[in-house]
Amino acid sequence: MGALKQALGALHQNEMRCIHRPGVNATDLGTGLDYNIFNVEGNVEIRMMFGQVTTVIGATANLIFLNFTSVVPAATVPLCAVVGAAINADAVNTLYVWAGTIAGALTVAPNIGHSGTDLQAWGGNTILLSPGVIGVDVGAAGANTGDIDWYILYTPCYPGAEITIL
Amino acid sequence: MSVTQLAQNSFQVGIKGAVNRGVLADMQASPVNLFRVSGGPVLVSQLWGFVTTGITNAVIPILTFNPDTGAAAAIATVMLTMAGFAPGTMIVWGGTRAGAAPVPTAALGMSAAGETVMVSDYVILVPGLLYYTNAVVDTTGIMDWFINYIPCTPGALVAAA
């Protein structure tokens, strides 16, 4: 069995993978509470992550950002800085683009992965994550209407490493 | 594994490509439709044109994207005149809206000053139509256009428009 596992591991290709998490207002923005979007099962390299508004955001002035809660240690850290302006009234197809850095803000972009003046570039090459949970911090403004779909592009580091939606 | 569990799994992705083969009528009018994004967002890694028949007039295309929901907007500044561009000239998008116009290069994706590259790994495009407007039409030139991209959902696709 050990030899078989070793052989299978040798065949493993670290191919890129993508996953789409559709927004559900009842369990996401509608709660007014921070919510989780992706479960990281094993070590992965993140290549890009962004949100897409699929139902116009309501009047609550949420200031959102992404965070990560690792399994070991059991601690939550921000993945980026808070978005530059509250997301209230953001239209369908507004994008929230993570720059791949902790210091960079989640950037709002209309339709095309650009900010108002120019491209929101991916600042990191790849970001390593250990097992844990990626979540959305919605701030203290409270419940809101609207939906955000989230996408993540990543590479698993070994057989069985995976990201699933929450 | 249930269908629900299957839907929660990620799917393997790679770089895909699409091509819009030009015809003589393209540059004789404006706008010229290039590609349609459908089925979900895509991550664009490269977008470029390739002159297959020489261009005569001082055409000045502006690459533009019109999402299915939302307003159309230029994704690059206006090209300088393309008069005299010979077959083999590449028109390479740098991936910026406010930066330089798509850069004409000679066959290698290189400008006179150096390599022309996307400033980011990827640029997100939601479903919509990619085209260029052209204030000065041309009577002789033909260009093929190419795009490389990663689909963000299994159904996301870019096809010639």
Percent range for β-strand residues of chain B? 35-45%
- CATH architectural type of chain A: Sandwich
Distance between the termini of chain B: 38 Å
Rounded average pLDDT of chain B: 82
Tally of DSSP helical segments of chain A? 1
Beta-strand percentage range of chain A: 35-45%
- SSE string of chain A, helices as H and strands as E: HEEEEEEEEEEE
Class from helix and strand fractions of chain A: mainly beta
Please give the most extensive interface between any two protein chains, plus how many residues each contributes. A-B, 35 and 35 residues
Poorly predicted runs of chain B are 107-115
What does the overall shape of chain B look like? elongated
Please trace the helix and strand order of chain B, writing H or E for each element.
Answer: HEEEEEEEEEEEE
Distance between the termini of chain A: 33 Å
Identify the quaternary structure here.
heterodimer
